[in-house]
Amino acid sequence: MEFFSSQESLTAVQWMLRAIVGFIFFLILAKLMGQRSISQVGLLDFVIVLLIGNIIAHPLSDEGLGLKGSMVTMGVILILYLMGILLSLRSPKVRKLFIPAPIPLIENGEIKYKNLKKARISVDVLLSELRKEKTEDVQKVALALWEPGGTVSFFLRSQYQPLTPSTFGAPVKPFKLPKTVIKEKRIDYKELEQLGKDEGWLLNKLSLTYHHIKLTDILLGTIDKNENLNIFLYHSSRD
User: Each residue of 64-107: pLDDT tens digit?
Assistant: First the structure.
């Protein structure tokens, strides 16, 4: 256990042991900090970024420290990080450790206060997330989940869900993403080829639809499912 205390020099094995102990200790600390502290990054990513940043900072700023120990330590931590990813892909138990199950914050219009404390967020934060979803009343929510990434997923009760064509029995048209054929003054020939069109067709479409607008004026141009050309200029005003 000599690697715990300060030493004049450490062997490569002692540096490795330090890295392993430090990695596990930091994982425990990050887990105790809760999902909100980690926010949009995963537990493993949060740990690896902070650890490596701190490890490399000291030898770069202190001429009395060599790079050997830091390089060995970073190498071991990187291996542990990759092992953690592989284990989380193969083992549900390990995956649950790194990616915990969502925490229900609202169920059938009722706020679960105990789960708010578990997720470590306040009622004010929950109401703020509700407002972002254009929902003003907690009672309209059938289920709200605190996701591992630090976001809240809301599911409204059936009577408060927005109306869709399927509500009235109308046929639902399939969604088709517009194709980007012009981006930053350049034509995307691959997208045109997928549409079965060529440069001549596009330029003719441009001249017929938008008079006096050149290709060099276009920031973004898309073709929708009806072959309509929509463009966005570098400047809002059009000739």
Answer: 555 567 667 777 777 877 787 788 778 877 777 777 778 899 99
Q: How far apart are CA 29 and CA 22, in angstroms?
A: 10
Distances in Å between the Cα of 101 and the Cα atoms of 78, 187, 229 are 26, 45, 44
Rounded to the nearest angstrom, the gap between the alpha carbon of residue 150 and the centroid of all alpha carbons in its chain is 10
Model pTM above 0.70: no
User: Which residues have a Cβ under 8 Å from the Cβ of 130 and sit 6 or more positions away?
Assistant: 136, 138, 141, 144, 154
| Spatial separation of the C-alpha atoms in residues 126 and 133, rounded to whole Å | 11
Alpha-carbon gap, residue 15 to 44, rounded angstroms? 21
- The pair of structure tokens assigned to 176 is 């088709």
CA distance 36 to 38: 5
Six-digit token string for 61: 């700023």
CB atoms within 10 A of CB 22: 18
Nearest alpha carbon to residue 149 among 32, 77, 46: 46
